[in-house]
Amino acid sequence: MIFFVHGVPDTPALWRPLISALDLKPGDYTAPALPGFGCEVPRGFVRTKDGYAAWLVAQMEAVGTPVHLVGHDWGALLALRAASVRPDLVASWCVTNAVIDGQYQGHRAARAWATPILGELTMMGMRDTARLQAGLMSGGMPEDLAREEAPQVDLTMRQSILALYRSANGLRFRGPWVDDLRNLPQRGQLFWGENDPFVDLTVAERFARERAFPLHVETGAGHWACNERAQAFGDVLKGFWEN
After folding, report:
1. What is the DSSP string of 2-59?
2. Per-residue pLDDT tens over the stretch 136-168
3. Can you say whether residue 55 is alpha, beta or left, with left for phi > 0 and alpha for psi between -120 and 50 degrees?
4. How is the chain split into domains, by residue range?
5. Start-to-end C-alpha separation, the chain
6. What is the per-residue pLDDT across 159-215, written as a single tens digit (0 to 9) for each?
7. How far apart are CA 129 and CA 108, in angstroms?
8. Is 135 exposed, middle or buried (0-12, 13-18, 19+ CB in 10 A)?
């Protein structure tokens, strides 16, 4: 079973081109929405990095067999965390355009969202769908995806983003989230859009070098390379899973 985990500010729509490129049937994969991202927040759910990681582990447990994890952006961070604390649930993992890195200081939006008042003011600008769509596209999101995702960024998602980024100190990770990476299953892969404006390629290169995992760099692609270059990503995954 392939388990896709999307990021922020996305929904499972992110994965549609890749699912097509891999020619997957419904029983081959699962691509749930993170609570609050295009769906309701379950009663009692705590929208923190640890809350989302625990949710992911529970989703993986429900599958019943080890999964092939594929995560993008926050989905990549959650996939690495879940694989670190429950390697027994993971057949393999592949992350794209985000890794847990103790030296990374977060991109500008992440730091703003993590800051009280400034984060709320920033979110006010995301209420205008047309403006948000243009902003996503300027950050590298493919137009078709931006057109679909921008209307999904409602109050629930905006509040979820603020809570999540504040729990992670604007993507400045310390402690167990970094330390527990030593438990990662060895069957891992990185796929990176070369021109990511949010998480520089050097972050991926450092992670791959220090932890001895293979890195595929997709030339000319950006932060949403997994969608933008779905066929190329699919080819990388097929080769990775076959080895």
Report:
1. EEEE--TT--GGGGHHHHHHTT--GGGEE-PPPTTSSSPPPTT---SHHHHHHHHHHH
2. 999 999 999 999 999 999 999 999 999 999 999
3. alpha
4. 2-106+173-242
5. 17
6. 999 999 999 999 999 999 999 999 999 999 999 999 999 999 999 999 999 999 999
7. 21
8. middle
pTM over 0.90: yes
Task: Give the confidence band of 243 by pLDDT, cuts at 50, 70, 90.
Answer: confident
Instruction: Give 176's contacts (C-beta < 8 A, 6+ positions apart).
Output: none
**Residues 6+ positions from 205 with CB-CB distance below 8 Å:** 215
User: How distant is the alpha carbon of residue 90 from its chain centre?
Assistant: 17
pLDDT in tens, 129-141: 999 999 999 999 9
What's 2-106+173-242's CATH class?
A: alpha beta
Residue 95 in 3-state DSSP?
strand
